[in-house]
Design goal:
This protein is an all-alpha fold. It has 6 helices and no strands.
Length: 108
């Protein structure tokens, strides 16, 4: 299945009509209708289409449904960043403790 047909099928499955796609992207309904008949959108339209359909550009191109993260669902990168920051804090605390111990054990 071509990219255009895939987009139309994804839109149908989500209850998004061709007229809504056309309006959201600022294009004619005829252009969207061409996709249903085998045409493809220009690459610059793919990010907006992916956002409209709640998926990714990769999913539009590959045909796999991959939902995007919602605003109330932290992304994997954000969760990993929080873990790294936490670990950095622990390491700093331990390093400070070691430095203090070495200062206290030095003999004049």
């Amino acid at each position: 299945m071509g990219v255009g047909k895939r987009i139309i099928e994804m839109a149908r499955s989500k209850g998004v009509r061709q007229a809504q796609i056309a309006q959201k992207l600022g294009i004619s309904q005829q252009t969207v209708s061409q996709w249903a008949r085998g045409g493809s959108p220009t690459p610059d339209r793919l990010p907006a289409l992916a956002e409209l359909l709640g998926t990714t550009v990769d999913a539009l191109l590959a045909g796999e449904e991959v939902p995007t993260a919602t605003s109330d669902e932290p992304s994997t990168i954000a969760r990993l960043l929080a873990i790294v920051e936490s670990q950095q804090s622990i390491i700093k605390t331990q390093a400070d403790s070691i430095n203090n111990m070495s200062k206290n054990t030095k003999q004049p």
